Amino acid sequence: MKVLFTCGGTAGHINPGIALARMFQARDGAEILFVGADGGMEHELVAREGFPIRTVTITSFYRSLNWSGIRHNLTTLHNLVRSRAQARAIVRDFEPDLVVGTGGYASYPVVREAARRGIPTAVHESNAEPGLTTKALARVVDKVMVGFEESRSHYPHPERVEVTGTPVREDFFRLTREEARRALGFDDSLPVVLTTWGSLGAQVMNDHMVDFVIRECREGQPFHHIYGVGQRYYPRVMERLHAAGIDLAGYPRVDVREYIYDMPACMAAADLVLSRAGASTISEISAIAKPSILVPSPNVTANHQEKNARVLSGHGGAVLMLEPECSGEALYERVRDLLAHPSALHEMSRSLALRAVTDANERIYRVLRDLAAHR
């Protein structure tokens, strides 16, 4: 059996595809191929998992109507034509039995080409509000899988929609909090805070986190802090900390990283997570019931991160802070307040556990396996 996964742009699109690829490989001995976009971070993440990857040349559409936006969109139209030819070659060469898109612009030409050839196709949309690529593909694929029941109304063919939850890598379920703490070298009883603003980072939030880190260092490192800056802004954060006189070599409990490669262990160890509200992160937090402070990105289509965050905060599983409300001081005070009230953290965790979809991988695998079987 041959399965082609296509995704890209962010870890939130890539990691669900990796989780599903592992299942097909383990259960069916499937031959796997990934397709991403030229220059995307999927190259590194997919390669680390040992899967082959090919690429298409495709870029996003800008909503701005200024000259820069128009010029970019003209390039995207050219790339769209080019990517169709590349997708045809990839699908022809690999001859997949099943093609699955898990988000990102690279999914569009590949899934569309597979559907044109009559190959079973499916897309998975993690967000409550579907993205542009999913909307475009929903009319041609055999199945649309979604993370939220409320998402059904956004699709033209509800009969093709399956509510499955969002795939979470099995690694997230392998370690208990205590096992993860030991694996990370935490040999005391101090709480652990995990901060991540997405795989690429976020300038505004990372600027706030500089003030956050300065204060925690000056207050004697009252908790362990694993802080994933994101590749784009890591040099900026380190320069600002250095300018403030903070040499992290002297603060062993403050672990500032360019990228968090061992996210399952870090999240398992955490008592509190600070993050954006991308659907993949929301699913991981929910699956292992981790209390969180969510600051949705205001720079995403249809404000879908805030909609994702309100699902968790509405049930009492997370604290929602909008970006304009944030500062390094405000975030630090909220973290200290929550850590000072373990009973509140426990109630947040319990709320998440009651509503978590922990078998999303299994649900999606069954949908896809049935789809391939009826080719």
Strand share of the residues?
5-15%
Helix proportion? 40-55%
* Major sheet summary line: 7 strands, parallel
Per DSSP E runs of 2 or more residues, the count of β-strands stands at: 13
What can you tell me about this protein's structure?
The chain is α/β, with parallel strands linked by helices and 375 residues long. The protein contains 14 helices and 13 strands. The strands form 2 sheets. A 7-stranded parallel sheet has the order 3-2-1-4-5-6-7, with helices on both faces. A 6-stranded parallel sheet has the order 10-9-8-11-12-13, sandwiched between helices. β5, α5 and β6 form a beta-alpha-beta unit. α6 packs across α9 and α7 crosses α12. The longest helix has 28 residues. The chain starts with a strand and ends with a helix. The model has no long low-confidence stretch (mean pLDDT 90).
Summarize this entry quickly.
The protein is an alpha/beta fold and 375 residues long.
Helices and strands, with pairings:
Blueprint (H helix, E strand, L loop, with lengths): L1 E5 L4 H18 L2 E7 L4 H7 L4 E4 L10 H28 L3 E4 L5 H10 L4 E5 L6 H6 L5 E4 L14 E3 L13 H7 L8 E5 L6 H16 L5 E5 L5 H10 L10 E4 L5 H7 L2 E4 L3 H9 L4 E3 L9 H11 L3 E3 L7 H12 L2 H14 L4 H14 L2
Parallel strand pairs: 1-2, 1-4, 2-3, 4-5, 5-6, 6-7, 8-9, 8-11, 9-10, 11-12, 12-13
Give a quick set of tags describing it.
seven-stranded parallel sheet, alpha/beta, six-stranded parallel sheet
